[in-house]
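Response to reviewer comment R2.3. The reviewers asked that we include at least one raw input/output pair. We reproduce the pair for TIGR02647 family protein here without editing.
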Amino acid sequence: MPYNADLVHEMNLLVKFPMHSDLEGIKVRSDAMPELVQAAQRLYAKGLVTQEDGGYLTHSGHQAVEHAKSVLRILTGKVAV
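Raw output as returned:
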């Protein structure tokens, strides 16, 4: 299954979450770009974040971020993301 625009928006949003603390999350404001608002809602529906507007990562969300950041590092050749 190839990546589609929705998956790319979700992955771009996921890699913005901090991995160093469970006490930090993100909030996607209602006036953000519609594709980001919708990506946050889809991540919530998939059980990866705690709120429809972002919130904190769930356990599955942490795993998804780790994998998404690994792929990004491999494809871009950058060590830190």
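The radius of gyration is 12 Å. The mean pLDDT is 92. Further pairs are available on request from the corresponding author.
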